[in-house]
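> run fold Methyltransferase
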Amino acid sequence: METCTTPLPEVSSPDEVAGGELEKWPERAFSIPPRITSGSIPGVTPEKFREDDQVWKERLTHYKRIIPLQQGRYRNIMDMNAHLGGFAAALSKYPVWVMNVVPANSDQDTLGVIYERGFIGTYQDWCEAFSTYPRTYDLIHAGGVFSIYQDRCDITHILVEMDRILRPEGTVIFRDTVEILVKIQSIAKEMRWKSQIMDHESGPFNQEKILVAVKTYWAAHKQH
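> ok
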């Protein structure tokens, strides 16, 4: 197991906390994680962290207009490309449980940051099956996931896996380019999902668009 364990950084005195001191909850969710303060994540500065938090506040405000977030409909939520855990942080005031997933193929390893914020998370190669024990999900967020994997495997396989993970009448929010979203929508229709492409929250001139899809509840007709 030693190869799977990340050792804590060395400290120079007994008064220091290995890895950096963490705030108490709920402040911990929004304070700058020690890994970012120490510069351990290339390209992620405290300023970028604050900007990411602000982006997610704006996104959540927009999402509340297009899906019933406040009605208690979503309890188990998955972020398929969690990055710094901003979606989970923005949702922390709601009675929900969020699984943060860092794609194994992403440019930055940010899972440690997610843990330091007090959230749960895991790595996943989305060309492979995801272990759903002990739960399935009511809401899945897939921001930029298909841009990462479109040249690695058939996106149909990822969507079929999402269909398995998602509960009937559950919702998926995709964020990607129009070209990718049109492909996703075509496959989603074959899976009997209802979907709609919408403009980015900043307006129609942003190249990134949003696709909201709902898995319908259906059963095969019995043959007499």
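The longest strand covers residues 166-177.
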